[in-house]
Amino acid sequence: MKRWLKGAHRLRVTLWTLIVPPTTWAVHFLFSYLWVAISCERIGRWALFPTAFAIGTVVALIVILASGVIAWQQSRTPGDPPPHNEGTDIDRLRFLAYSTMLLAGLSFVAVIFTAMPVLMLGDCR
Amino acid sequence: MRGKSSAISILTAGFLAGCNTHQSTLAPFGADAADIRHLFIMMLVGAVLIAGGVALLMRHAVRAPEGSIDHRKGMRIVLWLGGIIPTVVLLGLLAYSLPYMKPRPASPADLTIAVDGEQFWWRVAYAPPGRPPILSANEIRIPTGRTVAFRLSGGDVVHSFWIPGLAGKMDMIPGRINSLVVRADKPGRYRGQCAEFCGLSHALMAFDVIAMPPAAFDAWLAEQARPARPGDAAGARLFAENGCGGCHGIAGVNAPSRIGPDLTHFGSRRTLAAGILPMTEANVAAFIRHPEKTKPGVRMPSFPQLSDDEAIALARYLQGLK
Ligand SMILES: [Cu+2]
């Protein structure tokens, strides 16, 4: 775990990795709707492979968690004391990493909130 | 002064709505509305507690001298009160309320009632399992203690079927059948209302709901399955001469029609024109001559050429159809 976290430093947070958590959330959201629509249309009831849906949800959560942890690491990159609002590379990194971490938190909760009704309602009406 | 009195009347209107026992989710006669009321009260109590807590915190924050907590502690408060606690509370509420949102299961042995929303009335067809459907309109009767499956659709535009005391509302969409399974628990006379703007007389599109003990309901339904027993011959002749039967079906007299409400057992309904007027001879006669005076935009032509006596004869004939 320690070593893995160290390695995470090499995956530099950029504007592209910033959108990983919300994109995962968006894909999971779309996937939930499609899953229910296709199940209800094809077999008339929820659901085709509910376990597969649960596994997909867990995968989405892991992706979001991983990018959150990496971002958390890099937001704590040591250096000068706050505020980190200069136009320097290190401040930019810390800013992007911190934003990614917050987005990861939001996306994590959102994926759970989306999956819960799908798993608990289980009805096509 | 004016502002004050209107504020008072708005407030009292809110409280008086609480006295309404025939069209209110807060006075449920069905299992689903009881659930909705329960959830509403839970949410209300929770919201009041949280609002109170926030108000206390705000008071504290405004009064505390500057610098009484450091940056770290401040950020921790933001994290817990602004992030973690709200998330956990919402998660808990979601987990608690989802089971209530699960649609009620229906069995093939349940009575099915097909209801179509039309501008500005309700087509009703009772379909007891294994028997031919029974047509009616503008009034719905259901047995207590049994599940009933409504199949809801729209004939022209989107309407919404809402019996507040029984269950939540459900859209009626042309070309689509939505299912709503309910169970009434308390006999009585209640009211439903169209809850999706559908045209000029949308607000005048309501209906009576009568929940009856199962034995009484079965007897009533058997009675409804019989064709009409027309009396008044003068009225019957006027009905045929004026072409009323082209739009209004009367089982045993003319063919069913989808254009206007079925009148086979019109006389046994409690209200006229989709829950709008009391069912009196004078009201029926007046409605037949000038329906648009009661309901702007109504899809029934007016019959001003009918004399007072003719209108009364028609009303008497129709009200005789028990
Ligand atoms: Cu309407």
TrEMBL record, chain A:
Top-level taxon: Bacteria
Key words, A-Z: Membrane, Transmembrane, Transmembrane helix
Membrane spanning stretches: 15-36, 48-75, 95-121
Protein name: Heme/copper-type cytochrome/quinol oxidase subunit 2
Biological source species: Sphingomonas yabuuchiae
UniProtKB/TrEMBL annotation, chain B:
Boundaries of every Cytochrome c domain copy: 230-322
Catalysed reaction, written as an equation: 4 Fe(II)-[cytochrome c] + O2 + 8 H(+)(in) = 4 Fe(III)-[cytochrome c] + 2 H2O + 4 H(+)(out)
Transmembrane segment boundaries: 39-57, 77-98
Domain Cytochrome oxidase subunit II copper A binding span(s) in chain numbering: 108-223
Pfam families associated with the record: COX2, Cytochrom_C
Keyword terms, alphabetized: Copper, Electron transport, Heme, Iron, Membrane, Metal-binding, Respiratory chain, Transmembrane, Transmembrane helix, Transport
GO cellular component: membrane
Gene Ontology terms: biological process: ATP synthesis coupled electron transport
InterPro entries, per the entry: CcO_II, CcO_II-like_C, Copper_CuA, Cupredoxin, CuRO_CcO_Caa3_II, Cyt_c-like_dom, Cyt_c-like_dom_sf, Cyt_c_oxidase_su2
Reported function: Subunits I and II form the functional core of the enzyme complex. Electrons originating in cytochrome c are transferred via heme a and Cu(A) to the binuclear center formed by heme a3 and Cu(B).
Similarity comment text for this entry: Belongs to the cytochrome c oxidase subunit 2 family.
NCBIfam families assigned: CoxB
Protein name: Cytochrome aa3 subunit 2
Gene responsible for this protein: coxB
